[in-house]
Amino acid sequence: MIDLRNVTKIYKMGETEIRALNGISLKVEKGAFLSLVGPSGSGKSTLLNIIGCIDTPTSGEVHLDGEDVSKLKDRGLTKIRLHKIGFIFQQFYLIPTLNAMENIELPMKEAKVPREERRKRTRQLLENVGLTQREKHYPNQLSGGEQQRVAIARSLANKPSVLLADEPTGEIDSETSEKIVNLLRKLNSEEKVTLLVVTHDLKVAKHADRMITIEDGKIVS
Ligand SMILES: Nc1ncnc2c1ncn2[C@@H]1O[C@H](COP(=O)(O)OP(=O)(O)O)[C@@H](O)[C@H]1O
Ligand SMILES: [Mg+2]
Questions:
Q1: Which CATH number covers residue 44?
Q2: Measured in angstroms, how far is the CA atom of residue 18 from the centroid of ligand 1?
Q3: pTM score, whole prediction
Q4: Is the CB of 44 under 6 A from ligand 1?
Q5: For the chain, how many structural domains are there in total?
Q6: Is residue 161, in this structure, part of any structural domain at all?
Q7: 133 CB under 6 A from ligand 1?
Q8: Whose CA is nearest to atom 2 of ligand 1?
Q9: CB neighbours (10 Å) of residue 23?
Q10: What does DSSP assign to residue 9?
Q11: Which of 144, 141, 58 is nearest to 152 (CA)?
Q12: Domain membership flag for residue 26
């Protein structure tokens, strides 16, 4: 369902070229939970961004559910991001002026989901991440772990087939990290979403069905 074929990413910075990814080929089957580890600067975020249609490869192909997305332009990429991809970041990126419910609802508004359906899905997601009692809280009234749970619920709003998490526990203490990973694993099976988690934390990585190590833009194990 995710099929990368010889993906290379080169960033050009004036005269210098940075080869962030160097011929990555990888297949991830539907519903799998994969973790990605590797040193800082090895290309993990670049890889996730390319799978998540935030960025495009310099060469190679990226197939999602059988569709080659590597040649899509902005409009096509935006559509895939909205409907197929959920993204979770280390810094949560919640909208500070919206409460938990409204943050979760936002991607559904963008996708023009009718109000009734939006409300129903938001309530369900709040329940799934254990935040029913926090629905009216603003981000600054929530702990780091709670904010990340809101971000996770938001990422699942439009029922993506792929959930990508870039260092999702990077800003969270280790006890709460464990809870976040358990939640991600639960949602991976409940929502039947393919899950890719980039992490420094081997305790987090070991929860996955499969672990990939990247060094210098290449898969080494
Ligand atoms: N937008 C960018 N422009 C130029 N260079 C970049 C950009 N993003 C990442 N890089 C470079 O590509 C390499 C891989 O970065 P990244 O994917 O962020 O690594 P990781 O997530 O594993 O720490 C690094 O050398 C980084 O400096
Ligand atoms: Mg990174």
A1: 3.40.50.300
A2: 8
A3: 0.95
A4: yes
A5: 1
A6: yes
A7: no
A8: 11
A9: 15
A10: E
A11: 144
A12: no
